């Protein structure tokens, strides 16, 4: 595996030599065995073409794009403002890769303030990528409007299994949109399951993995109205297994609806609601069985 990393590094140096551009120390440091870490502040416009050629030739399974900035919600002089053109070009390169590659499994963006234009570029890539299993957009000041831009492509995508939009600014406005997203993924799997059962055959692959099974929406601004909007969809869903809603604004009414949901839905085995407005004390880590989850709600 270390040899593969050396090969990737050597290839990048050869690409830069061929293009007659200097190597980026930031890119060199970010090249790993099966992933590449891109730090926005360390990439200039002159690095875009070498990056595009490198991604096309190296079968990275994970792409991580992040900023050196921390505490984005407090820091308004974001990397996005100073590196706007670089960010746009990097996203275009990555989403273009999605149209051709069957290797990228995980795509992570974190600590970068995202705009609607950025989300539109990401959305175009999500709509066509066939290998991506994990999409994580973490602490990027993502809003409900941004979610609405991504939602149609998230519905269209059939490879995603994990969505992590934690540490953002999502509100109750995403409730119905999220419900519709889960409903479409559920219908798709229900149809495949029905087809196999009518033929009396067993699927070669786990049907649950051709759609979303895990959601992380922790550290947002979701409230009781969000719960009211999404629960009717979750009651009919039999594929989603894990939902993280900790550190939101859910209160007593929302908790009661979630407890009722667990009584009706036999698939959800993990529902984390710690540190919401409706909780009165810190709830310790426990296993993800429903009985324990109900106790967490009641506390």
Automatic annotation (TrEMBL):
Give the top-rank taxon of the lineage listed in the UniProt record for this protein.
Answer: Eukaryota
Using the UniProt annotation, give all residue ranges assigned to the region (Disordered). 280-299
Cite the InterPro entries for this sequence: LRR_dom_sf
Q: Which lineage do the record's taxonomy fields give for this organism?
A: Eukaryota, Sar, Alveolata, Ciliophora, Intramacronucleata
Q: Which species does this protein come from?
A: Paramecium tetraurelia
Q: What is this protein called?
A: Uncharacterized protein
